[in-house]
Amino acid sequence: MRKFIPFLALLATPTLAQDWKSQDGDMPFETASLTEHLSGQTLIFFDDGQSVFESNGQYQYTYGGGGTWYGHWVVTEDSTVCVTFVTGVERCDRIVENGGRLVMQTADGLRFPVQDIEAHP
After folding, report:
1. Which terminus of the chain faces fewer neighbouring Cβ atoms within 10 Å, N or C?
2. Distance CA 26, CA 23 (A)
């Protein structure tokens, strides 16, 4: 559980206007393109965490070690995805493509590359 505490703290940090600390090669998406890219997909991260972007707007994040957060997702401008969790907490992250791989950028400048993408049944 202790290894998830820093991640939980990130969940509680809303992001409105951000300097995303982009890196060379980061390619943002247009709003409609990112919505289409994520809808009905599961992003699997290298820590085995999984973000499920259901086509009806529902969202689930499951930690690699278990435990799931539920919410609703929407793509906003600047390649940003905002999730409002059932707890009322909102989290916004930026998703870009870099070197053929999706990368999630947090408000704090952390980067989480996506290991795999699977269609959500």
Report:
1. C
2. 6
Write the burial class of residue 4 (CB in 10 Å: 0-12 exposed, 13-18 middle, 19+ buried).
middle
- CATH value at residue 54: 2.40.128.640
DSSP 48: S
Domain of residue 107 covers 2-14+24-119
In whole angstroms, give the CA distance from residue 38 to residue 36. 6
Q: What global pTM score does this model have?
A: 0.81
Across residues 74-94, what is the average pLDDT?
Answer: 96
In the predicted structure, residue 90 carries a pLDDT above the cut 90: yes
Measure the CA–CA gap between 45 and 48, rounded to whole angstroms: 5
Quick one: how far is CA 12 from the chain centroid? 14
Which pLDDT band, with edges at 50, 70 and 90, does 1 fall under?
Answer: very low
Bridge partners, 28 (sequence order): 96
* Position 41 in a domain: yes
Q: For residue 10, is it within any domain?
A: yes
What is the Cα 63 distance to its own chain's centre?
13
